[in-house]
């Protein structure tokens, strides 16, 4: 496979904010699940530790950011590399049924897991009926 084909394939998930930026911004692969009481987001952030990840919530938009440092191997000369330096960034607009004060985050084996709990007031509930 030629280097051009590999480069094209790799850059499908890359967002360049402007042409003069030297560090690419990657959009991490993400899975989103719904278990009824919460929405679970899992994002792949390979090589990123807890200290490398920044999660913010502003005006109903949840944003994940991380920096992938360049990995160098002392005494090794690269022949071909796909792992590289770059930033990860992804944003999600939250719906009104998410309790913005109840968001839990954890990272394990390069996978960030966010648990977005639903507001109690938006969950289905049974209304009791009284006889008169």
TrEMBL record:
Pfam families: HSP20. SUPFAM superfamilies: HSP20-like chaperones. Transmembrane segments: none annotated. It comes from Parvularcula lutaonensis. This is Hsp20/alpha crystallin family protein. PANTHER family: 26.5 KDA HEAT SHOCK PROTEIN, MITOCHONDRIAL, HEAT SHOCK PROTEIN 21, CHLOROPLASTIC. InterPro entries: A-crystallin/Hsp20_dom, HSP20-like_chaperone, HSP21-like. Belongs to the small heat shock protein (HSP20) family. Residues 21-132 form the SHSP domain.
